[in-house]
Amino acid sequence: MATIIGTVGVFGFEEDQQGILLESQDIDYKPDSKVQRDYRGVKVGIIFYDDQTDVSMKGYIPRENPTDIKVAQTLTLANAAPDHGMSTVSSGTNVVTGIKIGLKNEDLASFEVSSTIYDF
């Protein structure tokens, strides 16, 4: 257990993803945008729309109960994405878009998964 003195950030994960010993989880919020210009070409406003959230996770494959995550299937996050986007992240559909597995002679088997949370 860590000893905390003063004001510090959030430490660690609530839990591992199913079948992955998590090392990191990154969340990227990025809506599309359109800058509005007047008749002189001067910027007068901006519109944000079509909210999208990308998730990437890195970790290790456990010997017991390894992951069965597959590309193009939906994924429920063990550590939910906080609502920093324009819409509530929990209301979207999280689709796995990529998987990368790393095998080395003198290291553990690593696992990276990327997914996109669509607002539908």
List the helices and strands and how they pair.
Elements: E1 21-29, E2 32-37, E3 43-49, E4 52-60, E5 93-102, E6 110-118
Antiparallel strand pairs: 1-4, 2-3, 4-6, 5-6
Structure described in brief:
Helices cover 0% and strands 42% of the residues.
Key terms for this structure?
42% strand, 120 residues, mainly beta, four-stranded antiparallel beta sheet
What does this 3D model show about the protein?
- A hairpin with a 7-residue loop joins strand 5 and strand 6 (110-118).
- By secondary structure, the chain is an all-beta fold.
- The radius of gyration is 19 Å and the shape is extended.
- The protein has strands at 21-29, 32-37, 43-49, 52-60, 93-102, 110-118.
- The termini are far apart.
- The model has no long low-confidence stretch (mean pLDDT 90).
- Helix content is 0%, strand content 42%.
- A 4-stranded antiparallel β-sheet has the order 1-4-6-5, with no helix packed on it.
- The protein has no helices and 6 strands.
Radius of gyration: 19 Å
Number of helices: 0
What would you call the shape?
extended
* Low-confidence region ranges: none
Computed structural class: mainly beta
Share of helical residues: under 10%
Beta-strand share of residues: 35-45%
Described by strand count, sense and barrel closure, the largest sheet is:
4 strands, antiparallel
Mean pLDDT, rounded to whole units?
90
Terminal Cα span: 40 Å
Strand order in the sheet with the most strands: 1-4-6-5
SSE pattern, N- to C-terminal: EEEEEE
